[in-house]
């Protein structure tokens, strides 16, 4: 079992928009920990919060990006299938795209948080009565408290401070990220982000979590968690492996694009994630399905 979890973790370190090998090395073994936490949530019927959404304000038609909401919808469906109660949390600028993704698979209640102060946002999330909180491609503040894009553009004013909820007491926390500026990247030494990521010294998020999954894209990181859950909860293995079908990914991605989502690297609409089209990673999903077999 451990060998398969290690192989799953390694598989999704395939480069997306950038090389994430060093980020992955810094958090080796944490995918298995997070998957085990989520498996426990499923067995207990616990409510799991999934926080996602990055608004690409510089795109010709500003909108939420495709990386994050797509993988979150797949992960929410996986959690529902193992008995957990997923609640997906995002902010106003990313709500339409996130809702469209969730509607495809029919799992995950949506909670939309308006822009506001840290304490107000944390209180709203706290009222959801969550046991677990996992960020998926959700940007968080650097050491100066500023939220920065991969291009080192400050978007603090247009990003709800959902990171504040990760300091709520009693939560089991986790995250999925691919760039160094997402919630959870506090698990990676700042020096590693500075050395390995463009603008890393300025953009590195310092918010830590209980366990972080690094991946070439955050959607792939969610797929890795689904595969790991299939290993850990074999009674639901077939249902979980079905979520790793490229046709499922494409359907959710198409819904995101129809709702206005754009590629976070190119800024353009279309069926791609961080510049990578669906056919270019169908083999990765097939590999994850194979690794997920009991």
From TrEMBL:
Pfam families: GLUCM-like_C
The D-glutamate cyclase-like C-terminal domain, residue ranges: 15-289
InterPro entries hit by this protein: GLUCM_C
Name this polypeptide is given: D-glutamate cyclase-like C-terminal domain-containing protein
Taxonomy of the source species: Bacteria, Bacillati, Actinomycetota, Actinomycetes, Geodermatophilales
């Amino acid at each position: 079992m451990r060998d398969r979890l290690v192989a799953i973790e390694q598989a999704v370190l395939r480069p997306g928009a950038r090389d994430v090998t060093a980020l992955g090395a810094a958090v080796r073994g944490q995918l298995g920990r997070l998957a085990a936490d989520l498996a426990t949530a499923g067995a207990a019927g616990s409510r799991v919060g999934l926080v996602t959404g990055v608004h690409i304000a510089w795109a010709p038609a500003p909108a939420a990006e495709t990386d994050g909401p797509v993988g979150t919808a797949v992960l929410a469906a996986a959690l529902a299938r193992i008995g957990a109660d997923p609640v997906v949390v995002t902010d106003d600028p990313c709500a339409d795209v996130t809702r469209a993704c969730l509607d495809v698979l029919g799992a995950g209640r949506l909670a939309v948080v308006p822009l506001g102060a840290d304490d107000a946002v944390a209180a709203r999330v706290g009222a959801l009565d969550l046991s677990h909180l996992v960020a998926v491609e959700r940007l968080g503040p650097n050491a100066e408290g500023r939220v920065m894009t991969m291009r080192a553009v400050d978007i603090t004013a247009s990003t709800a401070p959902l990171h504040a909820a990760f300091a709520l007491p009693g939560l089991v926390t986790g995250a999925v990220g691919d760039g160094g500026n997402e919630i959870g990247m506090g698990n990676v030494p700042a020096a590693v982000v500075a050395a390995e990521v463009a603008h890393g010294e300025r953009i590195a998020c310092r918010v830590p979590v209980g366990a972080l999954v690094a991946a070439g894209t955050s959607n792939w990181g969610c797929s890795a968690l689904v595969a790991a859950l299939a290993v850990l909860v074999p009674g639901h293995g077939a249902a979980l492996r079905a979520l790793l079908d490229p046709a499922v990914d494409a359907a959710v991605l198409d819904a995101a694009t129809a709702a206005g989502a754009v590629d976070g690297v190119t800024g353009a609409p279309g069926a791609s994630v961080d510049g990578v089209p669906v056919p270019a990673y169908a083999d990765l999903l097939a590999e994850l399905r194979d690794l997920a077999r009991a």
